[in-house]
Design a protein that fits this description.
Blueprint (H helix, E strand, L loop, with lengths): L1 H44 L3 H7 L6 H32 L5 H8 L3 H4 L4 H9 L3 H24 L7 H19 L17 H28 L2 H13 L1 H19 L4 H38 L7 H27 L4 H20 L1 H4 L1 H23 L8 H23 L5 H20 L1 H10 L2 H11 L2
Helix pairs in contact: 1-4, 1-7, 1-9, 1-10, 1-11, 2-6, 2-9, 3-4, 7-8, 9-10, 9-14, 10-13, 10-16, 11-12, 11-13, 12-13, 12-17, 12-18, 12-19, 13-16, 13-17, 14-16, 17-18, 18-19
């Protein structure tokens, strides 16, 4: 599943890069604000009630799924109606230039469209059926970027966002109906959700904080630092999409898996194993991005994007620390019903990033947000680790060792990319980073490298190829 989702996100990263080249930093910044706002509201409207159904022993009933769907669509319609009323009613009445707000508000129509997706996704994830879930994800992302890139190339600019977001939502629903037997319909009987409301609301608050963090950050950057800085930071986030999705995917699986584990000893064994493997994988992914960034900018994006290199580097260092901890511990503590760590982490990140957007970004640009992001991720990792000690005791030696390997690999790639900041230098920088990572991983973490290869299917592939030879 991890390899599949990484492949999906690499496709979406490529779509984002093409869109950034077509639109330029300023327009891409507005586009990113709109997409981030839609994602934030989707996180809010896709309530944590589904997580409550995942966590409990009994499977969800048809009445509960119908009530969940009704609740979701009501939230989606309300959010979309509010956004449209503000953009097309209140702002013009106040004499405010509402061109950009109107383009963004139309994208909110994707919220009610995506509502039927939630119930099938909940049932599939509960049963650990991640192949159909991946089909839904890839359908959404392909529709988003195919429509967005096509319309942007035709000159639609930021107005490409709304059709792309709506097409993405519709594609996800269509895929969900195709791969899942679950069918839902509206109902007035929402009382069945009361039993799972408390955990669901708390879980949703934890999840929504991170989406609101990003959506609010982009809005603040657009307001106080301008669209160019917003676009640079948005591109920096997209360059890190592969490792971030690795963390999200394994963490999502971990929540369901830890919900089925009964003993502390098994919790500790699984958490330690996941930490070691994820730290080594993250070191490879982050090292290639950081190492090759100058060549990517100089050879592909153009020098108008020079400001993206430093924030990408700073954010990658933070993810190298937090990511493996998040994967190993986030699902565990939430499966045990303790949401304080994730809630505190989200609140800390929101406060640090929003403060930096208002006070530092107008003067120092996207680099200030990269530095703030690094600090916020380190603080979140510390909070999550301390909070998790009530349930497990894990060693951080492997995290430090993998971080050292990733740093050395990134430095090797960066040395090549700075000498050859061209399209030719891009594969050379990536190759240098991966070569150093491979050598150091074999020398310092051989067992974890073997486990990583096995989890990614490399070992099975090599065995198959060997048996296929005459």
């Amino acid at each position: 599943m991890v390899a599949r989702d990484l492949a999906i996100r690499l496709l979406t990263m490529a779509g984002g890069l093409v869109l950034a080249i077509i639109l330029g930093p300023a327009a891409f910044g507005v586009w990113a604000v709109g997409l981030g706002l839609v994602a934030a509201l989707q996180a809010v409207t896709r309530s944590g009630l589904g997580a409550s159904l995942l966590r409990r022993a009994e499977p969800p009933t048809q009445r509960e799924l119908n009530a969940l769907f009704t609740f979701q669509i009501c939230l989606g319609v309300s959010a979309a109606a509010t956004g449209l009323a503000l953009a097309f009613g209140l702002l013009p009445a106040l004499g405010t230039r509402a061109h950009e707000a109107q383009a963004v508000s139309l994208a909110l129509l994707a919220l009610p469209i995506s509502s039927p997706r939630v119930a099938p996704a909940c049932v599939l994830e509960r049963d650990l059926r991640y192949v159909p879930l991946s089909i839904m994800d890839v359908s959404e992302q392909l529709a988003l970027y195919v429509v967005a890139v096509s319309l942007a190339a035709l000159g639609a600019g930021i107005w490409s966002l709304a059709p792309a977001a709506c097409a993405s939502a519709a594609a996800g629903v269509a895929a969900g109906l195709a791969v899942s037997p679950v069918r839902v319909r509206p109902t007035r009987r929402l009382g069945v959700l009361r039993a799972i409301w408390r955990f669901g609301a708390t879980f949703q608050l934890s999840e929504s904080l991170y989406a609101v963090r990003d959506g609010g950050l982009n809005l603040l950057l657009l307001t106080f630092a301008g669209s160019h800085v917003t676009g640079v930071w948005a591109l920096a986030q997209r360059l890190l999409v592969a490792p971030v999705v690795l963390f999200q995917t394994v963490g999502r699986v971990g929540f369901v898996a830890f919900s089925k584990v009964a003993t502390r000893e098994e919790d500790e064994r699984q958490a330690q194993r996941v930490l070691r493997i994820t730290a080594l994988a993250a070191a490879a992914l982050l090292a290639t991005v950081v190492g090759a960034a100058p060549a990517l900018v100089g050879g592909v994006l153009g020098h108008e994007w020079d400001g993206v290199v430093l924030p990408v580097t700073l954010a990658a260092v933070g993810w190298m620390v937090l990511g493996p901890l998040w994967v190993a511990l986030w699902g565990l503590v939430q499966a045990r019903g303790d949401l304080r760590g994730p809630l505190m982490g989200g609140a800390v990140q929101l406060a640090v990033l929003w403060t930096a957007a208002v006070t530092l970004a107008p003067r120092f640009g996207a680099a200030a947000i990269g530095a703030a992001f690094l600090c916020a991720l380190l603080l979140t990792g510390a909070l999550l680790y301390v909070n998790s000690r009530r349930f497990v005791r894990i060693r951080l030696t492997s995290l430090l060792l993998a971080g050292a390997i990733g740093t050395a690999a990134a430095a090797a790639g960066r040395a090549v990319a700075e000498q050859m900041p061209t399209l030719t230098g891009l594969p050379l920088a990536v190759g240098a980073a991966l070569a150093v990572w491979s050598v150091l991983a074999v020398a310092l973490m051989p067992r974890d490298l073997q486990r990583l290869a096995s989890e990614a299917g490399v070992v099975r592939l090599l065995r198959w190829r060997g048996s296929a030879q005459p």
